[in-house]
Amino acid sequence: MIVSIRDPNILSNLDPQQLTSYLIAKGWQQEESPENKDSIWILDVDLGNEFDINLPLNPKTRSFALRMAEILETLEKAEGRSQLDIVSDLVTNIPNIQIQGIVIQLTESSHIFNVIIMGFVIGKPQHIYTFLTPAEYQLARTAYVERLAVICIGDLIKDNGVFVLLNKSRFVLYDALSSASAV
Questions:
Q1: Cβ neighbours of residue 104 under 8 Å, at least 6 residues apart?
Q2: What is the pLDDT of residues 38-51, one digit of tens each?
Q3: Which tens digit of pLDDT belongs to each residue from 78-133?
Q4: Distance of CA 28 to CAs 96, 139, 145, Å?
Q5: Residue 115 to residue 171: CA distance in whole angstroms
Q6: CA distance 166 to 133
Q7: Residue 44: enclosing H or E segment and its boundaries?
């Protein structure tokens, strides 16, 4: 099954600098850009075929998300990888995202409560680190012991390849029977 990323929240939060680093690492060559609004990248492949990407440099550009979707389609064809795999490499920040998962690790040190949640980020299971209040930590402990799912909402960032959920606005147990969350 081929999956196309169309979520404007994900697409509009892709970082042009991160994408530039990615293209360089994958062997793409940058061509001259007439203006500093975008950069043009070329990848030569076998038999004289080539792929090109027109990367917008300003995320505030009205068509930024649409152009990111087009870039993902091109990368998918050029690399023979799914867009989910590519976006997982590129994502560095997704604000106000809801994560559903299970608590796989709890640590408490000097009144700092940390947990690791196994949750899905853009369709792929990932370890997500977050800090909790004492009350949230008790919920997390219950979820861990009873193997219950949790829901948390916050700003997801990737820092040195590690996903961290910051600015949490919600951390609750997931009630599968009512498809709602319980406190």
A1: 116, 117, 118, 127, 144
A2: 899 999 987 778 99
A3: 999 999 889 988 988 999 999 999 999 999 998 899 999 999 988 889 999 999 99
A4: 32, 47, 48
A5: 12
A6: 12
A7: strand 38-44
